[in-house]
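Tokens for chain A. Residues wanted.
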């Protein structure tokens, strides 16, 4: 919450809702896969957006132990090229 958002409601289980508010932007989604403690996947988007409506893109986060560290791989699929950050 301190990093990117103003409000978060998370129900991290398959079919559970993900609601994030970033100022005037609201992201809404659904968890599709939870594999504690290594992987989480959810579909999400922006209500009212023609380019990225809810469910249009998928985010996958994979955590892998690397000695005392953790490697985080984040993949965001389905983002239209017009909305990608260069």
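Reply:
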């Amino acid at each position: 919450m301190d990093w990117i958002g103003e409000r978060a409601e998370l129900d991290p289980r398959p079919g559970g809702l993900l609601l994030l508010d970033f100022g005037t932007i609201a992201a809404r989604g659904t968890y599709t896969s939870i594999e504690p403690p290594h992987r989480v996947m959810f579909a999400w988007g922006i209500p009212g957006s023609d380019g990225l409506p809810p469910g249009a893109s998928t985010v996958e986060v994979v955590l892998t132990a690397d000695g005392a560290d953790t490697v985080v791989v984040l993949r965001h699929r389905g983002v239209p090229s017009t909305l990608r950050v260069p």
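The domain at 7-79 is CATH 3.30.530.20 (Alpha-D-Glucose-1,6-Bisphosphate; Chain A, domain 4). The mean pLDDT is 91.
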